Amino acid sequence: MKDKIVLITGANSGIGKETATKLATKGASLVLACRDIQKANEAREEIIANTGNTRIETMSLDLASFTSIRTFATEFNKRYESLDVLINNAGLMKGSRFETEDGLELTMGVNHFGTFLLTMLLLDRLKESAPSRIITVSSNAHEYGTIDFDDLQSTKNFEGRAYANSKLANILFTYELARKLQSTGVTANCLHPGMVQSSFYDHPESIEEKERYDLLRPNMISVEEGALTSIYLASSPVLEGVTGKYFDKCKEASSSALSYDIQTAKRLWETSLRVVSLDLTS
């Protein structure tokens, strides 16, 4: 990984920070893309202190804002001439329905549409840097997800399902992206990190949600364990050329039957292009 440029979203805490730390140890040059730039800078200083690697930069990125994503991508592409690994790590889970500034349901807006737009805006740089890798953190929660094209924003049926739906969208996107990137030298894979004990569960929005998290905590794994598959996908030479796969515990695994539906993936791709206002013909 020495001197490879790695961009990690949501790298100021949890498995994102742990992934960054381990890749810094391997000699990678890191860009920590985070919504809270102060926390990103604090993470940077901590990683430098722990690894001795000073080739770590921070940049502001809010995946709940298409304006922020476009501004970030423009600045990144100006600042960096290459991108070897993109790790789409940032994500959120909400027990209640909120909206982004663009009017999207927040969970799907950040976890899928924001990730989709960011990846698309960095594709040219990734292609120029080939062989390069795109890694998206999904979840086994995708097994409970559906893609209702009549209600992608969960206006009719939220009930906490938006997270599972967004994680299914991550996998459908990854598989379709891998198909579209054949012969470019850019690979796209996704993963389930495990149920990780991290800040993800620190702010329940209701007593019921807190009780549910408290029941889950004894079965949660450490942040260090949760980051292992992301680190493996980013750095292992064994995976050179491997694309369009889903991984769990550093091994290729099967995702849900719906995640392999090519027509659903194609429709989600076209829908996503419209939602984020991308015209690939121009």
UniProtKB/TrEMBL annotation:
<dbReference type="Pfam" id="PF00106">
    <property type="entry name" value="adh_short"/>
</dbReference>
<dbReference type="InterPro" id="IPR036291">
    <property type="entry name" value="NAD(P)-bd_dom_sf"/>
</dbReference>
<dbReference type="InterPro" id="IPR002347">
    <property type="entry name" value="SDR_fam"/>
</dbReference>
<protein>
    <recommendedName>
        <fullName>Short-chain dehydrogenase</fullName>
    </recommendedName>
</protein>
<comment type="similarity">
    <text>Belongs to the short-chain dehydrogenases/reductases (SDR) family.</text>
</comment>
<dbReference type="GO" id="GO:0016491">
    <property type="term" value="F:oxidoreductase activity"/>
</dbReference>
<keyword id="KW-0560">Oxidoreductase</keyword>
